[in-house]
Amino acid sequence: MKLRETIKQAAYSLQANKLRSWLTTMGMAVGVFSIIAVMTALQAVDQSVASGLSSLGSNTFEIQKYPATLFGGHGRNRFINRPDITYEEGLLFKKLMGGKRDKTGLKVSRSGNLAVYANRKTNPDITLFGADENFATANGFDIDFGRNLVTNDIRLSKNVAVIGQDVMNALFPNGGNPQGKTIKVNGKVYNIIGVFMKKGAAFGQSQDNIIVIPITRYLEQVDIRSSISITVEADSPQEYDATIDTAIGAMRVARGLTIRDANNFELRTNEALIESFRGFQQTISIGAFIISFMALVTAGVGIMNIMLVSVTERTREIGIRKSVGAPKKSILRQFLLEALFLSLSGGLIGIILGTGAGNLVAVTFNLPPIIPITWMIISIAVCSGIGISFGIFPAYKAANLDPVEALRSR
After folding, report:
1. Does the chain have fewer CB atoms within 10 Å around its N or its C terminus?
2. Measured between alpha carbons, how far apart are the two ends of the chain, in Å?
3. Is residue 60 situated within a structural domain?
4. What is the tens place of the pLDDT at every residue in 253-297?
5. Nearest 5°: phi and psi at 88?
6. 215 and 242 within one domain
């Protein structure tokens, strides 16, 4: 029998038992769906992390109270019980940094804020920053028009603000220069002195949905108990490690630590953030792979079961075919193709649904969509292997039936 005829016969046999074939296919689809969905979402997050690191800059690091990632457990209390980094400690730190003080920025932030201008309101999702005059330089922001915060704004605790592009578009949809306009943020009045250039998203969050006010004003009106973050930019990649060492020493002095005391602050660098994310990603990937592998093996057992049932039901048909000269390899090939069809059909369904689900997660968190080509190829290969592996025994059993005994079957 030609291969084309064998394929047609295999497809016809599966169509004759649509419900059984469909249920078996779904078992394979579930396993592939789980791995594709997880890997698609993780790849989208991975791309977002890679692009989001540009918000710090290649020569920049942060000092803060908490680590970049904080999970549950007993170790969590160690970070929560640390004393906040105060504004006074930040000022002393800048002084101790000497010639690098102009590249050292202080900031504190709170999300979930609402801004109002005239009869227009933003969504209550604005990030409000209290910062010093070095915020824009240290965090990679440029001024589109107007001006940045200056030393006098901080020293005199002025009620001025620099806004992001998302805030400007929400409050001033008709365009124009909002400089000099007065807005309210959580009931407090601020005069707009400048607008940042569009920066885009990082880690799935817009960096343009922000309002920056003097840190002294923030501590007076918003939250006096906030723990500040300190951003430091090294002069060059060659001086990066040396700048970190200098910053650690300066921060220990600013915090009043003795030589026996451990650091009660965290250093956030691009490398540490990547390493932390990679570890988290690897754990999730291994867990998803184990679950998916178990589901695929279970689906393979289901394929073997349905094929054995099919051999039993079609014993007389196999006997007739063998009696008219059908070779063993033709029958073996037909049953293997049936098992392969079931496996690949489930794999394709799982790939389509998994890619859609993974990208749905990505879109929900404002992450770029991903087509996981590598994992698609791996899934197709695994499904093919499972289909052949679990279909070989039923196919071999069908090919080796005695035609005389098979014809006696009813």
Report:
1. C
2. 25
3. no
4. 999 999 899 999 988 877 766 676 677 777 777 887 788 888 888
5. -65, -40
6. yes
Same domain, 192 and 254: yes
* CA distance linking residue 84 with residue 152, whole number of Å: 26
Parent domain of 220: 83-264
Last-in-domain residue among 264, 292, 317 = 264
pTM of the entire structure? 0.64
**Helix or strand run (H / E) with residue 272:** helix 270-313
Residue 242, amino acid: A
Number of domains in the chain: 2
Q: Is 73 inside a domain boundary? A: no
Count of positions (residues) in the chain = 410
Short-list 49, 52, 66, 15, CA closest to 345: 15
* Residue 228 near residue 87, CB atoms below 8 Å: yes
Q: What is the mean pLDDT of residues 362-375?
A: 79
Integer angstrom CA distances of residue 79 from 70, 178, 229, 263: 9, 41, 15, 11
Token pair in block for residue 325: 């000269």
Distance of CA 383 to the CA centre of its chain: 26
Confidence of residue 10 (pLDDT cuts 50, 70, 90): low
Q: What is the 3-state secondary structure (H, E, C) of 311-323?
A: HHHCHHHHHHHHH
Q: Are 232 and 125 in contact (CB under 8 A)?
A: no
